[in-house]
Amino acid sequence: MILISVKEIVGINAISMNSGKKIKDLIIKDWDQTEKIALDFSEVNVFASPFFNASIGALLKDRDITELQQKLDFKGISDHGKRLLNLVISNAIKFYSDEENKTELGLDEIRKDI
Amino acid sequence: MARQQIKIPLPPIRDDDSGYNYLSKLADFIFEGPENFYTFDFSRCSTISHNGLVVIGGLCDFLKQHETSSSMLKGFGLRSFFSKKKVGFNIDSINPRLMEKLRALGFWNFVNPDHGFLGSTDYIGYREHNTVLEDSIIISHLQDNWLTDEKLSISELLKSEIVSSIYEIFVNAYGHGLKENTNNQSVISCGHYDPKEKRLSLSVLDFGGGIVNSVQRHVAIPHKEDAFNWALEVGNSTRTDSAPDIPRGLGFGILQEFISLNRGVLRICSDSYMATVDDSGSYVTTKVDGCFLGTLVSITVNCDNKHYRLMSEAQEKLPNYF
């Protein structure tokens, strides 16, 4: 099992998308190397949805929820953090299975920006 | 068109429906005539709440930025030496209590330093923020300056839920507010703590075009009210501040749930609409008299550790994936 200390990577606030991306990159790097990845949230005090969207929600683009449940373990996370995590996962499952294809709408916007 | 000198006689502006209606009309009026000179007159104004201060401060910022951009000598990028002051304040007859309140909130320090004074930096009050969201600064400010044990007595869990909810408001303001903001305007916030009622209030404003404009650029929803309501639904997002393949759209839903459980007040004003959360925890949208070309989010939360439930105690059951 590989243990990722969230506090060591992002500090005591798990809030921003940038912080979330750092965690996601570490998870992806270790994904095939181990049976289990534990995310240790000890001493992390504040949580916000952009962090979980970019770290855990984004993993559901290429994996299903069962794979996440088998691979990931969340340690030391507060009740508030866990509720946000489950809310984000619920939203991400809907997002990636969205028949209206909102992702394509977003891609159109990015193309305009480019 | 000739520039006019316009006096704005400010009425009392409270954190209620009439206050938001007045502010929407004021914003509409000034956005229609950014070339004019405005003087805010306080002689008939006995009080201004946090919502009024962010809008007045935001309009002053808008006028200054508009003047700066329009007075640059074309081709040289040099500011005109002849540009006049766009905003004035007639405070000779201002109520002394209001004057003191505006000083204590730090309003003048940003809006007209001639009337301000340099106080400590840990006040709960008016601020104009950088154009880049500095996550750790905002969180530290909330935790170390606002929600300190000396100012209010709340549990660590409630404190983290309040900080988390307020952060979602700032993410929203920076996300759709500043990226689409051609005037390079600041996000503006104003907080107020009522020690008697143990209630913390905060307004956050951006003039980034507003929810309706943002939604209608991304989704085919012709009716403005429908576009406004679309943005309030969980999972809906225009994704202006992130990669297109990352799920978003939880901020307003999280605020709605937190405010409902806390028995607080939430108002989201944008374009000609205002959403509030009713007793059943649902958003209710009404029209306002004017128009905000931006988004104003105001919350009031109870900080007494008594008559509220925490989000983590919410009865609505989410799937427990973990």
How many angstroms does the end-to-end distance of chain B come to? 63 Å
Lateral strand order in the biggest sheet of chain B:
6-7-8-10-9
Which geometry of chain A do the CA atoms define?
A: globular
Q: What is the makeup of the main sheet of chain A? A: 3 strands, parallel
- Terminus-to-terminus distance of chain A: 42 Å
The average pLDDT value of chain A, as a whole number, equals 88
The H/E string of chain B reads EHEHEEEHHEHHEEHHHEE
Which CATH architecture of chain B would you pick?
Answer: 2-Layer Sandwich
Biggest interface and its residues per chain? A-B, 47 and 43 residues
Chain-averaged pLDDT of chain B: 85
Beta-strand proportion of chain B:
15-25%
Polypeptide structure, described:
The complex is a heterodimer of chains A (114) and B (322). Chain A has six helices and five strands. With 114 residues, chain A is of the alpha/beta class. Chain A has one domain (2-113). Chain A starts with a strand and ends with a helix. By secondary structure, chain B is an alpha+beta fold. Chain B has a single domain, classed as Histidine kinase-like ATPase, C-terminal domain (Heat Shock Protein 90, 2-Layer Sandwich). In chain B, a hairpin with a 4-residue loop joins strand 7 and strand 8 (199-206). Chain B is globular and about 60 Å long. Chain B starts with a strand and ends in a 20-residue tail after the last strand. The model of chain B is unreliable at 79-83 (pLDDT under 50). At the A-B interface, helix 2, strand 4, helix 3, helix 4 and helix 5 of A face helix 5, helix 6 and helix 9 of B.
Which key features would you list for this structure?
heterodimer; A: 114 residues; alpha/beta; 3-stranded parallel beta sheet; two-stranded parallel sheet; 5 strands; 55% helix; globular; disordered C terminus; B: 322 residues; alpha+beta; Heat Shock Protein 90; 9 helices; 10 strands
